[in-house]
Amino acid sequence: MVRLDRLVNVLGGYGLRLSRCPVPRSTELRSVVLHEQANGRPVVGDVLLAIGAASVGEAVRWAAAARASVVLVRDSAAEEGASEEGAAEDEQPVAVMTVEPSVSWSELAAVVYGLVLEGRETESGRGPTDLFALADSLAAAVGGAVTIEDRLSRVLAYSSLQQHADRARAETILGRQAPEPLRAVFTDRGVLTHLGSSDEPLFVEPEPGHGLTGRMVAAVRTGRDLLGSVWVACPAPLDGPRRRALVDGARTVALHLLRSRASADLERQVETDLVLQLLEGTADAATVMSRLGLPQGPVRVVALRAHVGQDERHAALLLAFDRATTGFGWSRPGRSALTANTLYTVLPGDDVAAARTWVTSLRAALPATLTLSAGVSGVSAAEELPVARREADECLALHETRDPDTDVPAYEESWDDILLQRLRAAARVGRTPTRGPVAELRRHDHDNATKYVATLRAWLTAQGDPAAAGRLLDVHENTIRYRLRKMAELTPLDLHDDNKRLAMMIELATLDD
Q1: Where is the PucR C-terminal helix-turn-helix domain (predicted)?
Q2: 0.85 cut: is pTM over it?
Q3: Closest CA to 406 of 439, 373, 448
């Protein structure tokens, strides 16, 4: 099942809007029906597709008869019946969602059925689709090798038929994406622009230098949303029945991709909810780990943030989340959740190198213009994940102060830097002494160009050894003794007091200089 709130959120991305909701958003939906009768009785179900309804009032009456909690109706019906039977509609406990004219009922049915009927299956991971079988069927109809790609030119499926196959096709399948030089050719020829704006198939002329013998390509689209493309290897443009087969095949592919997207969206939502339960400590950790398909054993938490420039953070983070959750459940090492401005991933195992490798592989899958910062928690048991989350947050904050190309901080290696970072943060908001030995020496250095603060830091680091302190500053040990005497004349240092030495070391550690 899926809850009404989730159905509303997902369908909102396909051009639907919730216009009326007298039922709780937590209502569970388990079935999808049309307005019809069987054995003289209305077919009942939780979601009604009001195909052919002349008004919202009629759609709501159909839904009430079907005992549905939500009804989907055309925008045009909502406009025509805007003032009709308003009071009668309000008496019915039925939520109403309106459908834009650009979205077909066939496409919408694929999404709704995918969400409601396949929801139980997606909790344990998405299963294989029949896109490969569809590619084989389409290849037989058009008489050429077929490749199905997503909107980022990544290969989703390809036919076993190799008629008119060429080197470009082989490289595309092996690399799971068209090679960069070939994509540049498509861009220069306006192929990608055409796919973004037209449903008409386009013939791409041969390009012998890149092993391309010719292609016919058609957009895979739902409404205004480009989902991907279908490519047919052919030496000349398709026409007649073969061209129509390509157009019809692209529409069928769109239905499959819609269902796949709906299932993927639901799986990500289920995964996010379960991961957040672990990170917040609000559920039995062993049970949740089992539901996520993670082994019972040591784990780490990775916290990530991504952005392009200074402003575009939301889109970059969504892209990182999409890549982190792409693939079947069993093929991904971790489980992820997106909350606020941070992506959290729970990774099994205690090897910090494996966690860093995972971050590196994720960064490699993202655009080069995107900046990614991350932090890795210490090794934890499942019930300790709330603490591990805080550790990962601390390491992430530390990494954001450094060059993003440096190694991702791990808590057991960076706890001292994290402590100093906290102290520096406190110092920046004025929570350090404005008077005292260190403050006085800083003021004197500023006004007289002396190096007393550096000398004090070196002496404390060398544990009171003037020779070692001199080597740190590249001066003679007598220079250190002379400066200490002058410093003692300016302010009471009390270097023989253990507590005062410790306090000065802490205060010096908070200084950026």
Answers
A1: 453-508
A2: no
A3: 373
